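Mods, move this if it's the wrong board.
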Amino acid sequence: MNNINISEIFSQDAQQLLTSREKAVKIHGSNIRASGNEIEIEVRNYFKRMLPQKYYVTQGHLIDINANTSSQLDIIISDNSNLPSLLKTKDGTEYVPIDSVYIIGEIKSSYYHSHHYIEKFSDVIENIRTSLYHEEVENTLYDGLRDDSDLHDLLFVGKNKILNRIFSFMLFIDRGDFDCDKVSEYFKSRDNKYLPNVVVILNQGVILYTYLDEDKMLYHKYPEDNIENYEWGFTPLVGLEGATLEGNHLSFLYHLIIDHLSKSNLEPPQIGKYLSKMLVGRKSLFKKF
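Not the wrong board. Structure tokens:
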């Protein structure tokens, strides 16, 4: 019987992303945007290959029932079984109903402190949370059976406190000039609900919301819960002997995404609400047959 070396597979996939970045930099030189576009495509294609067909991977904007839209997002993972996308323009940009969205992400070829990538993505998250309508659906069985527990939740057996949360991540392929000390103050000063759930620097480490004691390090996926004794921190994930740092970080991001998807549950978006401003008739214009 042959055993599959999972660590080696993730290491190879991570190396492919690093190689694609190096190739893009050689081709596009100082054109950071063009180089970044190629890396975004590589990462989206990776998750299209890795995720089950019930999930839809694209790029574009979120849109709510009031036709409010978000800024451009490098990656959006939505529910492919109902309404994964509302509109698609000729250049491939999509407008995805926010009620269909599981995950959003920002993908960068390299980290440059002067570009304030994390700060800018944090502003995007704040805009989505404050300007787009997205009613959170509570898991009525999260703390056990209660008087108002929903039968739907009982059948789903979801483990997330909020069933339709939008998980956010940032992925930097190369460390660039990343300095943990330079970003720590920003994470301490920003409201947790406007920060990405995780930041992965593929060839250096990850920024996590964690709890540390003498024996263990625990990670919580949803920093907006503001759990007592949890705080932001940075660490490389060394892993087992023979595994690469890049492979460990890619597999960790994949694990977080799969875990969030498996514990979330989205109701089908009501298409009529998204099109309501177009579907308006006037009595004065109606003609009887």
